[in-house]
Design goal:
Blueprint (H helix, E strand, L loop, with lengths): L2 H9 L1 H19 L3 H34 L11 E3 L4 E3 L1 H23 L8 H20 L3 H19 L6 H32 L4 H14 L4 E2 L2 E2 L4 H21 L8 H7 L2 H27 E3 L5 E6 L1 H5 L2 H20 L5 H17 L1 H4 L2 H32 L10 H4 L1 H15 L5 H16 L2 H29 L13 H19 L2 H9 L2 E5 L8 E5 L4
Antiparallel strand pairs: 1-2, 3-4, 5-6, 7-8
Helix pairs in contact: 2-3, 2-5, 3-4, 3-5, 3-22, 4-5, 4-11, 4-16, 5-6, 5-11, 6-7, 6-11, 7-9, 7-10, 8-11, 9-11, 10-11, 10-14, 11-14, 11-16, 13-14, 13-20, 14-16, 14-20, 16-18, 16-19, 16-21, 16-22, 18-20, 18-21, 19-20, 19-21
C-alpha cells in the first residue's frame, strides 16, 4: 500500500469506524441469544459506534468553530480530496457529518423505546440504520458523480428494506414496494444524466466539469472528448438536460414536487422510529449533495482561488437553472401544504409537511449565495429538532393507543400534558412563529432570497410566507385535538419516561435557539468552505472554494 493510500485512509477514519460497528452489530446479533438483553446490548453497541465516529469528526469540527470565531484559520492541508478526488474533506462535509451522527443517535434512542420493532431483529435494524448513515457521509463528501450515485444508492437501497421492515404489515409492504418503484426509476434517470455529463466532459469529477464550463462560458472553448468537439449550439442544451436528469435522482431523495409521491405512503407504512429518521436524515443528506453538486459546477472562482459569493455563474443563469429551481420550490411548498390540510393521519400530515419544508429549503438554491447556503444548513439543524420531536410524540401516542390518527390525540393535553405541550411547540416552530427556532430558520431563508432583489425573488419569498400561514391551519388541527377535544378516556396515557425525556431534550433547543442562535449560526457561516482543485495546467495542488463572506 502506498503512502498516498494510507493518508486517504486516515482521513476516512469516521467512515471506517461506522463500517466496523456495522460488522460488530451483525456479530453481536448472533452471539447474544437472550432477547431481553439483546435490545439493550445492541443499542449500546450502536451508540458506541456513533460515539467513536463522532470522536474522529469532532476535532475537525472544533477547528472549524475556532476558524469561524477568528481564533484560527483553516489549514489548506485539512481541506483536501482523497481517493483520486472522489471524496472531499472540507468544513461543509464535517458540519453535515456531525448533524448526521446526532440524527442517527436520536433515531437509535427512539428505536429503543418503540414497541413496533421486535427484539430479535434489532441487530439487523441497527446495522441497516448505520449503513444509511455511512451512505449519508458519502453524500456529504462526494466530489465525483460516481461517488454521488453510490452514496444515493446506498442510502436508497437500505431505506427500501427499512420501509418494509414489518413484512406482515400490509401498509409496510406497500410502502416498501412504492419506495422501490419510485426510487428505481429516479436512479435510472439520474444515471442517464451522469452518462450525459461524462460524454460531454470526459470526466465525472465535479471540479473538472466546472473548469470546462468556465472555459466555455468565458472563452467559448468547448471540451474535447476522445478527439470529438461538442456542437456549440447543442452543448448548453445538453448540459441543462443532464442537470435536470441528475436533479431527478436528488429531488426524489429530498421529496420535492413532482418526485414526492412516494413520501406519504412510505412515511405512514414504515416503522415510526425509521419514519422520523427518514424525514430528517436522508433529506438533509440530499440537500448536502445538492449543495455540493451546484456549488461544484456553477459557483465561479473568485480571487486567490476562492469562489465568488454572488451565487450562480452567468452561464447557469442563462440555462436557466435559478428559474427552474424556483418554480419547483414554489410548487413543492404549495402542494405539500395544500395536501396536508385534509389529512387525518398524523404521520401522513407530517409527510406532506416534510414535502413543504423541502420547498422552503429549495428556495436557498435559487440564490446559491453565502447567505442562502448558510440559511439552508442552519434550517436543516433546526428542522431536525422540530420534526424528530413531532415524530417522537406521535410514536409515544401510537405505542399506547395503537393508532396515529387525529382521533388518537384527543385530550392528550389532559392525559399527558408534557407530550402535548412539546408537540404544540414543535408544530408552532414548524409553522415559523416567533420566538421559536423555526422562525429564525425561515427568516434566514426568506431574507437570503429577498436580499438578491428583483420581482421574481420577492414573489418567491411571498409565496413562502403565504404557505407558512397555510401550514398553521393544519398544524393547529393537531393542537385542537389535544387541548380542545374531550379525551376518549380520562385515564393517563402513561407514556414511557424515555419519550418524556426526549421530547423535553428536543424542545429546549427549539426554544433557546429562537432567542439566542448566534453561536450556531456563526459556526455554520464560518464553515462554508468547499474543496475545489485547480486545473492541472494552472496548478498542481488543490485550492479551497470558500463561500464565506469576505
Amino acid at each position: 500500500m502506498s503512502a498516498f493510500q494510507v493518508v486517504d485512509l486516515t482521513r476516512f477514519v469516521p467512515e471506517l469506524l461506522l463500517g466496523g460497528c456495522i460488522l460488530f452489530l451483525f456479530i453481536g446479533d448472533l452471539l447474544v441469544r437472550d432477547e431481553r438483553k439483546k435490545r439493550i446490548f445492541l443499542t449500546a453497541l450502536a451508540l458506541a459506534g456513533l460515539a467513536s465516529a463522532a470522536a474522529a469528526v469532532i476535532p475537525t469540527f472544533w477547528g472549524n468553530v475556532q476558524a469561524a470565531l477568528g481564533i484560527e484559520s483553516y489549514a489548506t492541508q485539512d481541506i483536501v480530496a482523497a481517493f483520486s478526488g472522489q471524496v472531499a474533506f472540507d468544513p461543509v462535509a464535517t458540519v453535515f457529518k456531525i448533524l448526521f451522527l446526532v440524527i442517527t443517535g436520536v433515531a437509535i434512542f427512539t428505536s429503543l423505546l418503540s414497541d413496533e420493532l421486535p427484539d430479535r431483529h434489532m441487530g439487523e435494524y441497527y446495522a441497516l440504520l448505520l449503513s444509511i448513515t455511512f451512505g449519508m457521509f458519502l453524500m456529504a463528501s462526494a466530489n465525483d458523480m460516481l461517488m454521488i450515485y453510490l452514496g444515493v444508492e446506498l442510502v436508497s437501497i437500505v431505506s427500501y428494506a427499512m420501509a418494509g421492515y414489518r413484512p406482515r404489515d400490509k401498509r409496510s409492504s406497500e410502502a416498501a414496494l412504492k419506495y422501490v418503484i419510485y426510487g428505481g426509476a429516479a436512479s435510472g434517470v439520474m444515471l442517464f444524466g451522469i452518462s450525459l455529463l461524462y460524454g460531454l466532459f470526459g470526466s465525472t469529477e465535479l471540479t473538472t466539469m466546472h473548469h470546462a464550463i468556465v472555459s466555455w462560458a468565458s472563452r467559448g472553448e468547448l471540451p474535447v472528448v476522445d478527439g470529438v468537439i461538442a456542437t456549440a449550439k447543442l452543448f448548453p442544451l445538453t448540459v441543462l438536460l443532464a442537470i435536470v436528469f441528475v436533479f431527478v435522482g436528488i429531488g426524489y431523495k429530498i421529496a420535492v414536487v413532482p418526485f414526492h409521491m412516494w413520501s406519504p405512503d412510505v412515511y405512514e407504512g414504515a416503522p415510526t422510529p425509521f419514519t422520523g429518521f427518514l424525514s430528517v436524515g436522508p433529506k438533509a443528506a440530499g440537500f448536502a449533495l445538492l449543495m455540493r453538486f451546484f456549488v461544484g459546477l456553477f459557483v465561479a472562482d473568485g480571487q486567490n482561488g476562492y469562489a465568488a459569493t454572488d451565487g450562480f455563474m452567468a452561464m447557469a443563469i442563462d440555462l436557466p437553472l435559478p428559474a427552474m429551481i424556483g418554480i419547483i420550490a414554489a410548487a413543492t411548498m404549495t402542494v405539500g401544504n395544500l395536501a396536508a390540510i385534509p389529512q387525518t393521519n398524523v404521520k401522513r400530515l407530517l409527510a406532506y409537511s416534510s414535502i413543504a419544508h423541502a420547498g422552503y429549503l429549495l428556495m436557498g438554491f435559487v440564490v446559491l449565495s453565502v447567505s442562502s447556503l448558510h440559511a439552508v444548513i442552519f434550517y436543516l439543524c433546526i428542522y431536525f429538532l422540530m420534526n424528530m420531536g413531532a415524530f417522537a410524540v406521535c410514536q409515544a401516542v401510537r405505542d399506547r393507543t395503537g393508532g396515529e390518527l387525529l382521533h388518537d390525540f384527543r385530550g392528550l393535553g389532559k392525559r399527558e400534558p408534557i407530550l402535548a405541550v412539546a408537540m404544540v411547540i414543535f408544530l408552532l416552530s414548524l409553522t415559523g412563529l416567533p420566538p421559536l427556532a423555526g422562525f429564525v430558520g425561515k427568516f434566514y431563508i426568506f431574507a437570503a432570497v429577498i436580499e438578491r432583489g428583483g420581482y421574481w425573488y420577492w414573489t418567491l419569498a411571498l409565496i413562502g410566507v403565504l404557505n407558512s400561514a397555510v401550514s398553521l391551519f393544519y398544524y393547529m388541527r393537531v393542537a385542537r385535538a389535544m387541548f380542545l377535544t374531550e379525551p376518549l378516556t380520562d385515564e393517563p396515557l402513561r407514556a414511557k419516561r424515555g419519550y418524556l425525556a426526549l421530547s423535553t431534550v428536543l424542545v429546549v433547543p427549539v426554544v433557546v435557539l429562537g432567542l439566542y442562535w448566534a453561536p450556531v449560526s456563526e459556526s455554520i457561516r464560518g464553515s462554508l468552505a468547499f474543496f475545489r482543485s485547480q486545473p492541472m495546467s494552472a496548478a498542481a495542488h488543490p485550492s479551497v472554494v470558500d463561500v464565506r463572506e469576505p
